Amino acid sequence: AALRWACDLSEWQPRAAEWEMLLGLLPASDREAVHAMGAALDRKRALVSRLMQRRAASFVLAVPDSDVVIRRTRAGKPFEAGESAAARAAYGAPNFNFNVAHDACLVVLAADAALLVGVDVCSPFRLRAGAPAEYAGLVSAFEGVLTADEWAAVRGEEAEGDADDAAAVSAAGAAAGDATGAAAGGEASALPAAEAVCVTRFRRQWSRKEAYVKARGDGLGFALRRVEFCDCPPPRPPEPEQQQPQTQPQQQPEPQQQQPQTQ
Question: For 6-19, how does the pLDDT look when each residue is reduced to its tens digit (9 = 90+)?
Answer without folding.
Answer: 999 999 999 999 99
